[in-house]
Design brief:
There is one protein chain. The protein has about 550 residues and is mainly alpha-helical. About 60% of the residues lie in helices and about 5% in strands. The protein contains 22 helices and 5 strands. The chain has a 5-stranded mixed beta sheet with strand order 2-1-3-5-4, sandwiched between helices. The chain is globular, with a radius of gyration of 26 Å.
């Protein structure tokens, strides 16, 4: 094993300097990207619409998809910060990403050592997909922070003799992860295994059991507190989202039984008939986050190709190479009682994503990013091996240690700049086009007070009235009796067209935006039939570049 992996721990002064540098390397590119992007992703509007449901007392609608979740309440609190939109939401992702440096470093440091942790955090700081998602008002960054913090505190609780504060904090962090994303439930078996198998010999079995109980009790206590405070006026108890587990179990049962069995037929029929909750992409319009359809559901090759393609694109090919090389360098440590349980969680996530692909015929690339974060130590191992290999073949043996450090820093800086360049050159022309369309509707046919949109038109509606429109997600959501404007994606669903007619709205003849994927319905009095056609609004990129023709027909599905 290279000497790098078995070096002495950093001194306190050196550790402080390295952590400060890693925080800066994490925050600065995210700040630059947040400054560059003027419009948030579609998922951001989805979460903001959930916040509006909570504000308006539409509890059933707010709980319909996310169930009991802390993220909408975080966004609700951020609205009162006084910052202008969308910085009041972007700043949360940037700050929480910077804070993630500390538990991530501490986790990898306890699993391996300080140098290993430094490289792992550096990979986290510079990964372009992680950078892009961190500046969006979506729950991924919050979940990663809670998951990593819970893992660090659980490992610390299992391997040290800390007082009761550590298991309490570990339980709170675990509850935060569970109340952000479904994958957080995987922390419960991790907690039980670590606390039972890693305790020092001086810690009694009774004390181990007490710590497990404290950690596990904090989870329902947090849910109980949310029910008594945030859901005080709601008549039903809510205990989180469990719908993913039955789907995975049903799929596994269907795979174990013949294809023509009643269970398989029932599962297939339910999957085909169930409406899929729409979710949009959080990244670049043409990035790996864009959901893709599989034409032939029975084509296993297509399913596997889509799965592996999304996996490799989300990882980034450079990180995938580091991962493969790292497996050859530290394969023995992968079987350790400390790191192996985390890898089992990564495997469980991959299985769940594959099941979702088979059932729903589409997946989102960001589902793989939790696996990327869990495998950062392996990628760090591969990175160090490549650096030492380059030094051995490209540098003379007589070179000094400081000169080697300069060459190593140059290599790391070059890779970081390439990754940051990929993130910072992201273009969201589709977002800008939709925002321009919303402003055009406002200036031409507005102003409006009550605007409704379908799932894919939320951004257009937001930029029409400057606040969240009423998005028609489901039948239990309250709707305006007589909306002033109804914005829909083409082709218009019959139910939505019928709603427009019931409200006395007429479709706007948008001759100047014929290539738009959207249409709109307003009251006939707002349409001046005798006026000349309005001038076509200029729809360009964020830097004034010509629009991409593909933005008018790209598929976006809320997930």
């Amino acid at each position: 094993m290279p000497e790098f992996f078995i070096g002495k721990p950093f001194t306190q002064r050196k550790l402080g300097l390295i952590l400060a540098l890693l925080v800066l390397l994490t925050v600065i590119p995210r700040l630059l990207l947040a400054w560059q992007i003027s419009s948030i992703c579609d998922d951001g509007y989805f979460y903001l619409s959930v916040v509006e449901m909570w504000k308006q007392g539409q509890t059933d609608a707010a709980l319909n998809y996310l169930n009991l979740n802390i993220f909408p309440f975080i966004l609700w609190g951020l609205e009162s910060t006084g910052l202008a939109f969308p910085w009041n939401f972007k700043i949360w992702g940037i700050l929480i990403s910077g804070l993630t440096v500390f538990p991530l470093f501490g986790l990898v440091r306890r699993l391996f050592n300080d140098r290993w942790a430094t490289i792992a955090v550096l990979l986290f700081a510079m990964h372009p997909e992680l950078v892009k998602l961190s500046v969006e008002p979506i729950r991924e960054s919050t979940y990663w922070f809670c998951f990593i913090l819970a893992s660090y505190l659980l490992l610390r609780c299992a391997t040290s003799r800390d007082n009761i504060a550590t298991p309490i904090a570990a339980g709170l962090a675990t509850a935060g992860a569970i109340l952000t994303r479904t994958e957080g439930w995987t922390l419960i078996p991790l907690a039980c295994f670590w606390l039972l198998s890693l305790a020092p010999a001086t810690v009694s079995r009774l004390r181990q059991t007490q710590r497990i109980v404290i950690v596990l009790v904090m989870i329902p206590l947090c849910m109980f507190a949310m029910n008594l405070t945030l859901l005080a006026g709601y008549p039903h108890w809510q205990w989180g989202r469990f719908d993913r587990v039955p789907k995975i179990v049903a799929w596994m049962q269907s795979q174990a039984s013949p294809a023509n069995s009643p269970q398989a037929k029932t599962m297939t029929a339910a999957t085909q008939s169930r409406p899929l909750p729409s979710h949009s992409t959080a990244g670049n319009d043409n990035s790996s986050s864009t959901p893709r359809k599989i034409d032939n559901r029975d084509d296993e090759k297509a399913i596997w190709f889509e799965f592996l393609n999304q996996f490799s694109e989300s990882f980034e090919y450079f990180n995938l190479v580091l991962f493969i090389v790292g497996l050859t360098q530290c394969h023995r440590m992968l079987l350790s009682r400390t790191y192996a349980p985390l890898l089992m969680i990564a495997a469980a996530i991959l299985i769940a994503v594959f099941v979702m692909l088979v059932q729903h015929q589409n997946i989102n690339g960001r589902y793989f990013l939790s696996v990327l974060i869990i495998t950062l130590p392996i990628q760090a191992s591969g990175a160090i091996f490549l650096i030492l290999f380059i030094q051995s073949i490209a540098l003379p043996t007589t070179i000094s240690h400081n000169q080697k450090l300069v060459v190593t820093a140059g290599f790391v800086l070059t890779v970081s700049l390439l990754f940051w360049f990929e993130a910072l050159t992201s273009r969201h022309k589709g977002r800008v086009a939709e925002a321009t369309l919303g402003k055009h509707l406002c200036t031409t046919f507005g102003p409006f007070e009550k605007v409704e949109t379908d799932r894919k038109s939320g951004r257009v509606g937001f930029h029409t009235i400057g606040k969240m429109p009423n998005i028609l997600y489901n039948t239990i959501q309250k709707k305006f009796t007589h909306p002033d404007l109804l914005i829909l994606v083409r082709p218009v669903r019959p139910a939505h067209r019928a709603r427009a007619h019931r409200c006395g709205l007429t479709e706007i003849p948008l001759q100047d935006l014929r290539q738009s994927e959207f249409t709109a319905f307003v009251h006939p009095s707002r349409i001046d039939q005798s006026s000349e056609p309005k001038a076509q609004p200029q729809i360009g990129g964020e830097n004034g570049t010509p629009p991409d023709p593909s933005i008018t027909s790209r598929p976006e599905v809320l997930r």
